[in-house]
Design a protein that fits this description.
This protein is an alpha+beta fold. The protein is 50% helix and 9% strand. The strands form 2 sheets. It has a 4-stranded antiparallel beta sheet. It has a two-stranded antiparallel sheet with strand order 5-6. α4 packs across α15.
């Protein structure tokens, strides 16, 4: 299976290691995980991807090999911060995660670092997901989680997030919030619908829109991105409100703002001192 376009148009390690998805594991030079219920082993050598037999079409879609990276890069502002992030992250692609898996994972991400989010994801999968191949588990469905108790989920080290995940699972499983319906709405309407769920505010909703619903303009603002925006784009200004940051991000970074966000996030997280 050839790489996406030309050399470095897809970078597997950057894509899976950038904090947008949390359950993939390294096994030598390969990554092992599940795409929905499909077990996948994927390895990159140069421009070529080697994947589990029969999974090529799933991998192409999941890793968004059809996203026009040259067009995306050309849409970015040409400031120093953005240019540095593009150079550092070149080939990183926004993956197409299953909507429920993505939403639920970011509900469990509140006030957690990437390693902790991954630990929670693996625990939930191993206890309540389906084993789709030896040692590889799918993410538990809304119905499976809805049947549990808050105590069950607290045993997965979710803490206060257990109540939110359980409440969200029950609302989705019952159809009170229909993710397929939300996917058909405009960005603002979809965001508002997702925010009806426990544990979902604007940041988590934007993560779900970007990584689970393919809304590439969505620009989640977490602690890292707020720091990037304030330090690099509003350095000489005081009392910049959260609303001002949202408005700036929506207009400045353009129709592929979600890509800009992830590049800025990954670059800052790995290169800035805490």
């Amino acid at each position: 299976m050839a790489g996406a376009e030309r050399a470095l148009a897809f970078h597997l390690d950057r894509t899976l290691g950038c904090g947008q998805v949390f359950h993939w594991r390294r096994e030598g030079d390969a990554w092992i995980g599940a795409i929905g219920n499909e077990p996948v082993r994927v390895e990159q050598r140069g421009e070529r991807l080697t994947v589990t037999a029969g999974a090529e079409h799933v991998v192409r879609d999941y890793f968004a090999l059809d996203h026009p990276l040259d067009e995306i890069y050309a849409s970015f502002p040409r400031d120093d911060a953005m240019c540095a992030a593009v150079e550092f992250c070149h080939g990183l692609r926004i993956v197409r995660q299953p909507a429920w898996e993505c939403l639920a994972t970011f509900i469990t991400s509140a006030m957690k670092q990437v390693a902790h989010i991954a630990q929670i994801s693996h625990t939930l999968r191993e206890r309540y997901g389906a084993e789709v191949a030896p040692g590889i588990f799918s993410y538990p469905s809304p119905a499976r989680l809805a049947a549990l108790s808050e105590a069950d989920l607290r045993e997965c080290k979710l803490g206060f997030r257990a109540k939110n995940l359980l409440g969200a699972a029950r609302m989705v499983a019952s159809g009170e919030v229909d993710l397929d319906h939300a996917a058909a709405l405009g960005d603002d309407e979809a965001r508002a619908e997702l925010c009806r769920l426990p544990g979902v505010g604007e940041k988590v909703a934007n993560c779900a829109l970007l990584f689970g619903f393919g809304r590439l303009a969505a620009f989640p603002i977490d602690v890292w991105i707020e720091r990037v925006l304030r330090d690099l784009y509003f350095r000489r200004k005081r009392n910049v409100t959260a609303r001002r940051l949202r408005e700036f991000s929506a207009s400045y970074f353009g129709p592929y703002g979600g890509y800009a966000q992830q590049y800025l996030f990954h670059h800052a997280r790995l290169t800035w001192s805490r």
